[in-house]
């Protein structure tokens, strides 16, 4: 509508200029309009072609080149490896020399109890991550955004960002030193005359333990996107809500969350697409402490099946199954986001 109004105003102004030109020329608007002079040639204004655009944006393209190369080689190029899911792959024979077995590996998955045990553990931990880890960065970002002092906010941000740069080896070792059988917590409980608690190596505590590790390590880093979205909220909306008598909770519910809802929906859709990709290093390092029955997930199952047992075709079939389910989840979640009026990942 705004574009239409501007166009009509521009048309009216052009008509007014033409009429004034006629009056100044003495025609009074009665005679026919003067012939329009031919437009000057556009030889001096060449169009910006693709090569010139590439040259103009060469710095940005060079900056994006390493990331583009990474995705082309390790993501799109690696898709060729899915042919192993239909072969009895032998590394010494290669893809061309290995025997084609069709859907035999997928039929094996249906009757493999170890595979379904890994699926069960993956779904359980994925659900825990979705319920407890996904809202944690949003809650922390809201708390940081409510801090008045910039110095205190930057200090807290620096502290909560640091665990992201630690490897999972260090994180798991720190939790073992704190919560292990001879850790700090059990040592402190022993000095008080209380019995020790079994957390590390306890299958019943394995799910909450890995979620606590993930929250401690990645929660601060995940707040970056939410803080960027919160910085775009109009302060005048908060002032208007405060003048209307809205407290902190109502301003949060009716101003903040609706303003950043597109970002929340987008990240939720992406998280659902990675529902079965819950991580590898964290579970690989702790799998032996609780046993494969509790600690085995799909990614460790693929590793031990392919590299430890040498069954590369079956491991590739499991990986392809996980990828197909992930695509289906992200497609479904994106459709639900469209039904809710949000953009989602893409607009079909």
Can you characterise this structure?
This protein is 68% helix and 1% strand. The longest helix has 28 residues.
Describe the protein's topology.
Blueprint: H1 2-24, H2 50-56, H3 58-76, E1 87-88, H4 94-97, E2 99-100, H5 104-110, H6 113-133, H7 135-146, H8 150-161, H9 168-179, H10 184-191, H11 206-230, H12 235-243, H13 248-273, H14 281-290, H15 292-295, H16 298-308, H17 312-339
Helix pairs in contact: 5-17, 6-11, 7-11, 8-11, 11-13, 13-17, 16-17
SSE order, as H and E? Answer: HHHEHEHHHHHHHHHHHHH
CATH architecture of one domain: Orthogonal Bundle
The end-to-end span amounts to 25 Å
Please report the first level of CATH classification, the CATH class of one domain: Mainly Alpha
Q: What structural category arises from helix and sheet content?
A: mainly alpha
CATH topology of one domain: MetI-like fold
Strands of the widest sheet, in order across it, are 1-2
Percent of residues in helices comes to 55-70%
Number of helices: 17
Write a brief structural summary:
The protein is built from 17 helices and 2 strands. By secondary structure, the protein is mainly α.
